[in-house]
User: Fold this.
Amino acid sequence: MISSDAVELLKKEIPLEQDTLVLSNDAKTGLVLVDIVNGFCTLNSGNLAPQTPDKQIDGMVDESVKLAKEFCKKNWPVYALLDSHHPDIPEPPYPPHCIAGTDESKLVPALQWLENERNVTLRCKDCIDGFVGSMEKDGSNVFVNWVKANDIKVLLVVGICTDICVLDFVCSVLSARNRGFLTPLEDVVVYSNGCATFDLPVHVARNIKGALAHPQELMHHVGLYIAKSRGAKVVSQVSFGI
Ligand SMILES: [Zn+2]
Assistant:
């Protein structure tokens, strides 16, 4: 396993300063929950779920639940992406996961109540990037329409994995915003404690054919760092102003 000293040393080479986000009624904010489904977050719930209790993932779920509750209380818009695959269509390089209609592609138990909330839009996606996964066959985009219909100026993003589905979604949103497709969206904010990634240490990956090592703490940091380098804001605290 990579030592924590080594992780700290690597982090120093790509230091990440994080801000605080204070949400107010002045700038309309939308919350995006990326793939907080059983297949990625609930113990022993499939090929890509944690096999042992995972602090980072559990912390991400707790923070997401807190935010979702607050957004629903205020009737602010929430967009929940759910990884969901047809059983016959693989998603290389990953093993089968989150097959549509199974518990793996459902929100974790602590968030299942969102299915009945009026301010929540659920979107099943069968690819890594939730922006692309929001495209319809006719070329329209459910996410773009959601931003416009709700007049969203600030987007707050949480979920899993920091360096995969969260990062790809954030990068696409930033490009779309910069091209003027997401007016009135201004800021894309990633909440670090509301994100998590999986752990596949190098000594384990070595024994799995074709697997890439994926040390959790380091890859989480790298994901946040790249998101910031592309133009997202990264915050370690979110609070609700008056
Ligand atoms: Zn998937």
About this structure: The chain is about 30% helix and 20% strand. Helices lie at 4-13, 38-41, 55-73, 142-149, 165-178, 202-205, 216-230.
